[in-house]
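It is worth pausing here to work through a concrete case rather than discussing structure prediction in the abstract. The textbook approach is simple: state the sequence, then state the predicted structure, then interpret. We follow exactly that order.
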Amino acid sequence: MEIKTNEALSLIPEKSNHLIQQNFQVFRSLITQAKNLAEQGKHAEAVVYAQMAALYGFWRHSGLFVSPELENILHTIGLKTIPAKIYPRHNKLPGKPRNVMHVASAVQSIGGLGRMIWRWIEQDTESSHSLVLTQQASSYVPSIIRDAVYNSGGKIYSLNESTIGGIFSWAKRLRKIAASADFVVLHIWPDDAIPLLAFANKEQSPPVLFLDHADHGFWLGASISDMVINLRCSGMHLSQERRGIESERVALLPIILSPTQRTLSRTEAKRKLNIDENSVLLFSVARAPKYKTIDGVNFADAHIPLLKKYDNAVLVVIGPGDSEDWSAAVERTEGRIKIFPEREDTAVFYQAADIYVDSFPIISITSLLEAGSYGVPLVTRYPYSDACGILGSDAPGIDANMIRANNLEEYTTILSRLVEDKAYRLSLGEATRKQICDEHLGSNWQSSLEEIYARATSLPRLTAKLDQKDEMFLGEPDVFLARIFWHACGHDKIDPENLKKWNMMPFAERFRFWTKLIKMNGFGKIGWIDVLMPQWLYWNFRKYVIESVKKVYKA
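Step two, the predicted structure:
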């Protein structure tokens, strides 16, 4: 298949194919170790190695998006260790609200996933919503999410705060909590195995819905998901074509947004940010890794031709902070590129923006939607063929009006017209705002959700097909994903040993690793004591250290 010329990603397919093959070998070795441990009855160690394989498969793309063999290992362990029959499902009582149980590995206030959970709970007022955390202490839950859960009549559970047991006791507790749920919605990390253990036995299980928030990468969960909820069409197509999800078990649910209310005009917002009110402000915001420089052309460099052409144009980027060296571009544009680290107070920047430019090489759909909801026109880069839809930005509310550039020359041309033509800029921004409101807010979004609830209720529970073998794919979009992730998480080879979640291992294994660290590195400041801690104690220890440091700084 032909690969388009790409200034930003000057990839040589042979190099990418070799990278995928290398990654696949490491991935397979981790699966083999997990399988051998499982066959020896060392189930906890097997689960840890399975999670290592999944995390490696996500960060080092290995030519696949799902592993039937890996899911089979976890499925078999789950059947042996989690007796679902002891947790009979409770029938819904007449007049009681629908009980939706959201399961997340962890939640944060910054980023799209935490906001999706929060807004889902606030919008779906006909349901009671509970939140179960598999790998985060409840004290770390942002207040906006905590308040939304409690206001809906739900509860918050943290599995790893238990002082007894380990990963299997957490999985059992998850299954027990789920007995009272009408629906389970998974918002989990790509390597989170706890739900796979808890729901391996589908008998008496409520419908399990998987929110595909990391649709561009490998993840665990296909074997237990009665429905996969995709947030965009490209993700839905990939679910069917590469993850093997049956068409009746995929659904499209737009990312939900809160109603946007302007509190400032563009002029007022620019004044508040000390930006010339007559300037044309280009804005972008995402997590730092999404701006990672690839093959020498960084995000700031891509805007130099435009900024040199128009003295009144300014680029503001939130996210990279000091993680990227854009000093040369800043100097060449006389300081008209302004860079900030990640922050939560982004509303004033959205309101000041005249044009929104998507992050690159990794896109940020939530940021696009939030910008568009303020009536800001959207521009994204897509230097790929049609086979690489998952690498680009798409969503129901932006597909019709967002402008895609296939190369940097076209990108500059598109931005030039927007800078020069204010009427066009405002018209496109307003059309974008209206379409987003129609798809991603209020009753229209709720209608999409209600349809998913109804479909999930009518579908029979999934019977996992676990007799398939893993097949590595060399082609698009895999050749690009391998290189993008290689840059996003560093050029050095990831040591699989560093992916191991030691505080999920039995104490004997933790102690063995601890003695190895001491021999290699000495005791350090705290004697590597965190390695010896079970996860519940680690989180409390971490909280204590953070609070102690804050007190020192306040003093």
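Step three, interpretation. DSSP finds 20 helices and 13 strands in the chain. The longest strand covers residues 98-104.
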